[in-house]
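Students often ask why we bother encoding 3D structure as a string. The short answer is that it lets us treat folding as translation between two languages. Here is a chain of 151 residues written in the first language.
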Amino acid sequence: MLKQSYLLSLLAAFVLVFTSCSKDDKDDPTPRIDGKQLQNHEWVVTEHIVKATDEEDYDVLAEYDGNEVTFEFKENGEYTIYVDGEHFSEGSYEVKGDKLNWDCQLSVIGQTMEDETSFTISELSNSKLKLTYSVKVQNVTVTENIAMNAK
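And here it is in the second language, the structure alphabet:
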């Protein structure tokens, strides 16, 4: 009886030790993005920079001479771009994990690709949206960053 009690106590101790050492507090490296957050706002582009290795940064917004560039993402998977309230272009999008897959005509990298580009959503809240896309072309890394604020 004493031996059985000792074994049960030992077993209980092991269970407690292994249970408390589990990785319950493991950080999720790719937080789930709720694509519906895109649909609740009109997004104003506040920054659109293209960086390339050993090259000067290219400010895409400078091409619009201070005109406001906005995006509207619709529930049906389509988006519209407006420049100073006037229709500029439209296309389709899809959110998968932390990626925004779209055929954005405003994307400098996207204009050079045949298919849609897959931007990483680095931040998405009720007030901010930040997107990043990177590609290596002939040993040159090109990164496109787009930041938007909800209107």
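Translate back mentally: The helical segments are 2-20, 36-39, 108-112. Keep this in mind for the problem set.
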